[in-house]
Structures are given as structure tokens and as C-alpha cells.
Automatic annotation (TrEMBL):
It holds the Pfam family MFS_1. The chain crosses the membrane at residues 12-34, 46-67, 79-97, 103-124, 136-158, 164-186, 206-230, 250-272, 284-302, 308-330, 351-368, 374-392. It is found in: Cell membrane. This is Predicted arabinose efflux permease, MFS family.
Length: 409
């Protein structure tokens, strides 16, 4: 059983790496690819680059809970295969597209089938004991983070080496192979727990269950905030780095300043998950939110690029525990029969942050300058930490009252 669980974890780590990479690898050259279709104005290319990138996450925001629900009902491995081959097909077809509208539609379809990662989390979560859920899910999250971190790099290297068309073609083939690896390598099992068989709930009942748990709601809000903060500065980061530099390699150093956050996240995510297993995932989530805000705010006051790089690395380490601890808390608080759907809602909040972040960051930068983006996002971190602290305090008070009543009885 243990050997099979480790094998499943390794296979899903590899598959999540390639799927996460596919979602971000188009970033370095999406505007360049659009320019190959026809002679467009710069404004047209910039506008459609944003639309084409954002539509995947916007559609995924609505669809992710449905894939989670289908996985709970019909089996998570089946959903992994449907979404994995679906993503591969959408990317493969992009190599044959020669119009902006066609690329937009395929990225929209990619959003429809972007249920692979939350379903993989649900599958591994269901076969993991609650006591080690944070450590295991933190390890799995490393695959997702690694893919998102190296995706733009791999996409840029492939585009320079073989061209845009073959980049999509090769990526589609690789994701198909990773999904086939899941087909033959994964065996779906569920850890048996000492509880009565859970009745099947409707989507409305699942939402009511989530809303009834204020800690669970805040866990999802934290997922939204970390993505919003991360992506709020992304469109402006190259400009911000340019203000700190007098050298010519602005693009490289701006890319380093952004990617180093993912590197810090990668290093720390398993550690935070293990600490959550030890002291409680909600507590670690609170600590990560506070530290995240502390190290995000000073980025507004840096005077050289290396100060920014160091602060963003530490910030990445600070927020490394938010996703695994959020997932592990859901593993502990939610019955196995509906975990996939709830994880889908959590993933939807993350996708929403991917869309809201660049929009709000762009508006704030346009009104009050790029530094204001750091102020805004830091405030979000501290506000979320305060709300979670008050909720945890109220929950602890309620538990103490129940204990005193039971003792008196």
C-alpha cells in the first residue's frame, strides 16, 4: 500500500509539472506568435495577448468545481485522463492555428479542461492519511510550482530553437505521454476512515457545507489573495525592474525577479506542509499570510534590483505553505466523498486571482504608480491574516465552551 502511494505521488508529481508548465509556457512569446498571423498594430497585439492569456483562467474558474464533482462521483483517475488528453489536444491544435480568434477559442477550450491539477490533488489526498496530508500534498505541490516556474523558460527556449508551431506540437505530445503515464501507472485507492458512509450531496448542499465552516471559507480566500498578490505585480515587474537598472539586460533581470518567487516557493512548500501536520494547517496558513505581507511591502522601497530579488525570494518562501496547508485543511475538514468538488472551488479561487491580480495591479499602477501595487497587495495579506486570526480565536472559544459543558455534565 505504501509503495503504491509513493509511486502514485511520483507519477502525479511528474504529470503536474508538465501540465502546470503548459499553462504558463506561452507567456514569453504569445504576443510574438500573434504577430505572425498578420500585420497588426501594437495596441491590437497587446490587447489580444491579455485576452488570450486570461481566458483560460477565467473559464477554468467556473469549470474547476464541476471536474471535482465529477471526480468524486465517477472516479478521479477518469477525470485526470479526460482533462489531461484535453489539454494536450488543445495545445497540439494551436500549432495549426493561423488566426487570433482560433487561438482564443483553443485557449478557452483549454480552460474548460483545466481540471487536471485539482483532481490530482484530490486523488492523492483521498489516499493519504490525515496526519501526513500536509507533507504529502506539499510534495505534490512542488511539481505544480516547478512547472509554473520553468514553463515560461521552457516555452521561450523551445520557441527560439524550433519555432512557435513546433513548440505547441512538442508540448502537446509531452502532455499526452504524461497522461498515458497516469493511465497505466496510477491505481486509484481511498484511505478507509472510521466514519459512516457519507450521503451524496447536491452542489447546493456542498456550497452550504463550505459556507458553514468559516475557517474553510477563509482558507479559500487566502488562496485567492496569494494569487492576486502574485499576479498583481507581474505586468509591471519589467517596468519596475527597469527603474532600478542602468544595464541593458533588463528582460533577464526582470524575469529573475519574478521567477525567484517561484524558486522560494518550491524550496519551502514541503517544509510548511510538514509544519502544518505538526501544529495545525490553519495556524501555518496564518503565519504564512503575516510573513507574506511583511516581505511584500518592502519591495515598494527597494533601491536596486538585488534588494528586489532577495525580498521576492523570501516572499516566495513565506507563501510556500499557503497552497499545501489549504489543501491539507480541506483534506481534514471535508468528507472524502466531496473533497474533489471542494478542492475544485479552492482552485477556482486561485484561477480568479490569476485574472483579478493583473487587472487590479494595472489599475493601481496607472492611478498611483507601481509602488502602490505593493501597498495594496500587502494590505490584502494583512487583512486576510486578521480575519483568519479572529475566526480561529472564535473557533477556539467555542471549543472551550463545549469542553466546559461536557465536563460539567
Amino acid at each position: 500500500m505504501i509503495i503504491m502511494q509513493k509511486r502514485n505521488l511520483l507519477i502525479m508529481w511528474i504529470a503536474n509539472f508538465f501540465v502546470a508548465a503548459s499553462a504558463t509556457m506561452v507567456l514569453p512569446f504569445i504576443s510574438l506568435y500573434i504577430e505572425t498571423f498578420d500585420s497588426f498594430s501594437d495596441a491590437y497585439v497587446q490587447r489580444w495577448s491579455g485576452f488570450i492569456f486570461g481566458i483560460t483562467f477565467l473559464v477554468a474558474f467556473f469549470v474547476s468545481p464541476l471536474w471535482g464533482r465529477f471526480g468524486d462521483k465517477f472516479g478521479r483517475k477518469k477525470i485526470l485522463l479526460i482533462t489531461g488528453y484535453g489539454i494536450a489536444l488543445s495545445i497540439f491544435l494551436m500549432s495549426f492555428i493561423n488566426s487570433v480568434e482560433g487561438l482564443f477559442i483553443l485557449r478557452m477550450f483549454m480552460g474548460v479542461v483545466t481540471g487536471f491539477i485539482p483532481t490530482s490533488m484530490a486523488l492523492i489526498s483521498a489516499q493519504t492519511e490525515k496526519e501526513i496530508a500536509g507533507k504529502v500534498l506539499g510534495t505534490l505541490q512542488m511539481g505544480t510550482v516547478s512547472g509554473g516556474l520553468f514553463g515560461p523558460l521552457l516555452g521561450g527556449l523551445l520557441a527560439d530553437s524550433v519555432g512557435f508551431t513546433y513548440t505547441f506540437f512538442i508540448t502537446g505530445i509531452v502532455i499526452s505521454l504524461a497522461t498515458t503515464f497516469v493511465l497505466f501507472g496510477i491505481k486509484e485507492v481511498t484511505v478507509k476512515e472510521n466514519q459512516a458512509k457519507e450521503p451524496k450531496r447536491t452542489m447546493k448542499e456542498v456550497i452550504q457545507y463550505v459556507l458553514a465552516d468559516r475557517i474553510l471559507v477563509m482558507v479559500m480566500v487566502a488562496s485567492l489573495i496569494v494569487q492576486t498578490a502574485n499576479f498583481s505585480i507581474q505586468p509591471q515587474l519589467a517596468l519596475y525592474a527597469g527603474q532600478l537598472l542602468t544595464t541593458e539586460n533588463i528582460a533577464f533581470l526582470a524575469g529573475l525577479a519574478f521567477s525567484v518567487t517561484g524558486l522560494g516557493n518550491l524550496i519551502a512548500t514541503r517544509f510548511w506542509g510538514s509544519q502544518g501536520d505538526r501544529v495545525g494547517h490553519a495556524r501555518i496558513l496564518l503565519i504564512c499570510l503575516i510573513i507574506g505581507g511583511i516581505f511584500f511591502l518592502p519591495q515598494a522601497f527597494v533601491t536596486n534590483i538585488w534588494q528586489l530579488v532577495i525580498l521576492r525570494f523570501i516572499f516566495g518562501m513565506a507563501i510556500g505553505g499557503i497552497i499545501p496547508c489549504a489543501t491539507a485543511y480541506i483534506r481534514q475538514a471535508v468528507p472524502v466523498s466531496m473533497q474533489g468538488e471542494v478542492l475544485g472551488y479552492n482552485q477556482s479561487f486561485r484561477f480568479l486571482g490569476n485574472v483579478v491580480g493583473p487587472v487590479t495591479g494595472g489599475i493601481a499602477a496607472g492611478i498611483a504608480g507601481i509602488s502602490s501595487v505593493f501597498y495594496m497587495s500587502s494590505l490584502l495579506f494583512f487583512a486576510a491574516a486578521l480575519m483568519l486570526f479572529l475566526i480561529l480565536k472564535a473557533h477556539a472559544r467555542k471549543l472551550n465552551i463545549k469542553k466546559s459543558i461536557s465536563v460539567n455534565e
